[in-house]
Amino acid sequence: MSDTDLPVLALTTGEPAGIGPELAVVMARDMPTSARVVAVGDPALLEDRARAVGCDVTVLALAPGETPPVPRAGVLPVWPVALRAPCRPGELEARNAAYVLETLGRAVAACQAGEAAGMVTAPLHKGVIIEAGHADFRGHTEYLRDACGVDEVVMMLATDPALHAMSSTWHGETALRVALATTHLPLREVGDAVTGPRLTRILRILDAELRHRFGVLSPRILVCGLNPHAGEGGHLGREELDVIIPTLEALRAEGLTLDGPLPADTLFTPHHLARADAVLAMYHDQGLPVLKYAGFGRAANITLGLPWVRTSVDHGTALDLAGCGSADPGSLITAVSLAIEMVQRGA
Ligand SMILES: NC(=O)c1ccc[n+]([C@@H]2O[C@H](COP(=O)([O-])OP(=O)(O)OC[C@H]3O[C@@H](n4cnc5c(N)ncnc54)[C@H](O)[C@@H]3O)[C@@H](O)[C@H]2O)c1
Ligand SMILES: N[C@H](C(=O)O)[C@H](O)COP(=O)(O)O
Fold this sequence. Notes:
12 strands; binds ligand 2; NADP; NAD binding; Isopropylmalate Dehydrogenase; 13 helices; zinc ion binding; binds nicotinamide-adenine-dinucleotide; 12-stranded mixed β-sheet; single chain
């Protein structure tokens, strides 16, 4: 591939008071050369944060939508978006919620216009966006679903050994792919959200994207139950009998290979995981603690079901570390390399 053909990836720099801006500049010290990664954010903020953490990187402000130059270590091209209010590391400022949303909007527009082949997102702070008046905001995943006008997308996190695999040879103690049937919902609402139609949409997307984006020829998916011990035959909850089992049976008839519903506590053991390509957890904190225990800092978040590639970090804004220079860039580096790999193989 010649330099002029290198794909463009838009990297949104996330909550300005968090660690996203400094991770972007730290990542640019060893800027990958197999794609043109362009940050979306405030160039002055990125320069300030580079100085604060002692990172010798040149921030190169481009015109909006301008094609980034050939990548070079130590140079971070930026599509500029202006902060709405001054920003101090670790201190949330509601006026900057509009800035964060504008960075997302710019990246989406670039993907829609074909100016970028995909996007990588640094962490944003959901609470401050909601408090700034965007009451329906839930997270990047839901934002991107709505921005793309698709019915459903799937949040999947994977630990590093499971990100690059093109077959099921990735199994190992820390290799995991965990997708979620519901995302950013209060726990009280989860039971009602686990419906047959939702599980059907999610499992179809997960099966198709494991084939298409990860090269798994015949995905085997382990499906968690919702209740303790997967409902214990209906004695500890009926969602397995009434919703999950009939849905899985119908999908098996379509050709999907699904095991479950299995009790989540024993599903996440080597015996079961050794024969799985992914796990579907019913809710956020059923699946993600296990994934983050296995691979925090080296895992990535992937949105399946979008018309372009989107990857993200496995951590949040870490306001406690912002501006200190001690935040680990591992997950952002992983998310960027994964996005490049997915774009290169046309996934
Ligand atoms: N991709 C995303 O946009 C994303 C992901 C997760 C959480 N969040 C948001 O982030 C905010 C804060 O969430 P939280 O406090 O639960 O989680 P968090 O990940 O920000 O912090 C949890 C702990 O991990 C540490 N940590 C996080 N990232 C680190 C890194 N790169 N290097 C070293 N240590 C790191 C933090 O210092 C903290 O002690 C919330 O608003 C949440 O919704 C966003
Ligand atoms: N659920 C994610 C996690 O815990 O890592 C995180 O909140 C990011 O979600 P979005 O990519 O939808 O913002």
